[in-house]
Amino acid sequence: MNNDQEKKSRSRAQIVATLGPASNSGEEICALAKAGMDVARLNFSWGTFEEHRQQIEHIRFAEQCFGHPIVIIQDVPGPRIQKMVGHTYNHDIVKALTDHDRECILFGIEQKVDYVALSFVGNAEDVEECRVFIKEKGGKQQIIAKIERQVALDNLEEIISRADALMVARGDLGEEIPLEKIPFVQADIIARANKVGKPVIVATQMMLSMTNSPTPTRAEVTDVETADMEGADAVMLSEESAKGKYPVEAVTMMEKILIEAEKHISTDRSFNPLKKLI
To answer: Do residues 96 and 123 lie in contact, with contact meaning Cβ atoms separated by under 8 Å?
Structure first.
């Protein structure tokens, strides 16, 4: 299959795959790219800078092998606090950007990542503080605002106006608002991002059962399809691709679901993809 044929067969919505212990090697990353990974997310809550440097080298190699760009997102931890089971964040914070985030971003600028995903954003000032730091250090990275706090929903319009892209981070968001509200909040964020033409990613537990199963549940298939139909520009795998038993199968299945969904989407619909920037 030549590159033009491969490009035509890929979904218009992008697949973001989080890299981790199950997908760190060059062979594994190449397999994810072949299966449909458009964007690689590097989770800086885990791993060393050297491990992330190796991941980036493997991503660059996969790009050369398959002839299409792979966007790199550096997801910085923010004021995250690890608990025995799961995690939370420091509720006393005023600003999202921490000193450790700054160290991570300096590394990301050096490695020429494309986007910085800023965790626990609360307002537009958080986004601007990150942007000023990137520019001061000579970077060109754009900023993805992760919407995962109630205060971010309260300040959503100003955050959307300042950020370059949005992420509906449903995991932590589900700790802040009633679970039954999440589908409606998701749809609202997607609609607002679409209105101003900014990329929006839907993330967390999209196909969580595939961490341990080679096939998703019917509900997970519907979830991915719904996100695409609602207007998401990208959908994201977390544990499924980072530490699951079936990372390639998860990307493959997600691609199948998106392709099917897009048979039912108007050809007039515009997508706002995350782009290779550096």
So the answer is: no
